[in-house]
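Lab notebook, bench 4. Continuing the backlog of folding jobs that were queued last week. Each job is logged with the same field layout so the records can be merged later without manual cleanup. Today's entry covers peptidylprolyl isomerase, a 710-residue chain. Filled in by technician R.K.

JOB TYPE: sequence-to-structure
TARGET: peptidylprolyl isomerase
LENGTH: 710
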Amino acid sequence: MARLPAAVSAGFLLVSACVHTVPPPAPPPQEPPAQVRARIQDWEDRRSLGGGELVRLATAAPEVSVRVRALRALARIQDVETLEAVVAGLTAPDKAVRDEAAFAAGELAQSWEPLPEDARTALTAALVRAEAAEADGDVRITLLESLGKLATPDAVEVLTARLSPAEGPWSEAAATALGVAARKAGAPAVANVPLEAIRALLKPRERIEVNLAGAYLLAASKRPDAVEALRACLSNAHPDVMALCVKGLGDVGSPSDTLGLNLMLGDATPRVSAEAARALAKLAAKCAPGASCAPLLALEGQAHLAKRVAEGKAAQGHALLAVAQQGLPLQGRPVLSRLRKALAEADRTAVSDEAHADLAWLDCRFAAAMDRQQGSLEQVFQCGYGRVPEARWLALGLHEVAQFKGAPTTASKPGEASPAVPGAAFAVPYLNHASPLVRGAALDALSERPVPEAMAPVRALIGGGDAVVAGLAAATAGKLKDAAALPALEALAERVPKEPDLAEAVAGALVALQGRAAEPRLREWLTHPHANVRRVAAESLTTLTGTPVRSARVELPADTYRPPAAPAGTTLTLRTRKGDITVLLDPDAPLTGGNLVALAKQGYFRGITFHRVVPDFVAQGGDPRGDGEGGPGHSIRCEMTRRPYARGTVGMALSGKDTGGSQFFFTHSPQPHLDGRYTAFGEVVSGMDVVDALLEGTVIDDVVVGTRAP
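JOB STATUS: finished
OUTPUT FIELD FOLLOWS
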């Protein structure tokens, strides 16, 4: 150590002796962790990084709970600029921090605005390193889940290595993650996973969860060489395993699988019988035209289910609904007709108004399926026994006919011949219908099958007051290549700042009609306060320029809508004529729960229907319009939780990042590919049998707010 010269040293000591020692200032009092977490909540709600403070807390906060909460906020904000902070958490000393960082990595992996390729590569490498070094089992499982959400080749390679042995500690998580990867990146992403490794997961064992993970991967992989494995697992005793194997067989099997699937049709569990019916409908499309078709014969034998629905056993109607939604080839028309006849006969003996309503809605579904076979409206004009509102059956028919790819073969109105034209000219008159649902459905049909005579009436709708219809009209004008629609389209684009739901349709039309001239406006949208508008702008500019474009994160103002959080233990009870469904809200999603509580207290949900029911998937409601396009007039931010989408989980329906409003859904069965993508904000704690009985058109009489006893 260097020393001062003696003379200088002595002088220094003399001076020092005459100076009073001043104590250093006391450090500022440390902010209580609860107060810091409250600030983090505010930043998260406003999609703010707190001027860099949020990243600092995520990487260096001394209190573990604060660091974990900061990482959860980064997971929900999903800003690629925070990637380094998330990666740093993967090697933190505390396992709670590592686990939360692993979850945040998965959220970045499935951002609504996809990560740049270099970020995906860097995140993959970090997760691979962390997974190889991780000693804690729970954290390692979270890392495997996030690798599945990334779905990169290197991620798939690691997950494949963890499949074996089947009894190993990681096989279940790895199989599920590979299934998620297949759902995200497509079945070819997992084509090289050894089939024997998957089959080993399906052997009878004590832990049904391993069987379930194997069946999920097998169904998602859609491998023709897996047919025998799928057939074998039909004998599994667990309904969710059976349903997954039935689903897989519908994708890669053949009409020769009818016998095995026919046995599943009689299963007492609605989601199993519904999957069997859907699988048979898929396989019917593989029958040679004019030849005997075993799947069709099996489906015709399900006419007796109409009587079960009439007896009030609505869950039995899920198999019928699955057939109508899937549709049948034209040679299956007699089957659809026979099932409609069975519904009409059952209607005469229905035990309640609710049973009558279920039969009526199913009848319109089958009528629409028949019209879809021929590409024109006919059967829906006589559907529903007068109980389904005209706007609903007409919109349903138009949406179904929009999916027809050939040339129409029958009349567009009862008793009236129509020429066999490839477009949807029959939909043009419905552009002037009084109901926005019908106008929107007509636009859907014309967007899929445009005709020149639609240009003028479509143009007129672009300037209409209904934002949903205006947006659909703009999208259709783009498909029609109608340059004369540009003035109306530009006027509609001016509404986007205040009506962000218009962005996607308007952007697509601008790109189609203006080309590079649309670039200045789209670049303005890159800084719009609404995340989904920015995403749409970035994707549209990427298409226009051929160069990847990303939007910037934009902080929301302090007065952004934030309802009071629902207290812990808050429940929502949906009252329907089929019974009550009680949901326990998750306190980890305070904004989502608080929003729905506020709407329920306003009576918002009274009279709203479940407009979408997909058997063995979801039942969705909460839309006052009834077509999946409506909401309360405001949106809330996503609050991704660690709750998995198991049977009976309740989630928010979205059309993009931070677009939640009032639409929610119940899951009929586990849906891992939804995990971390849609806010899971609660679970059904009573009334799951009612969820199973929901059909399209089921009315919500009210939603009551309550509290569950501790």
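OBSERVATION: The longest strand covers residues 700-707.
SIGNED: R.K.
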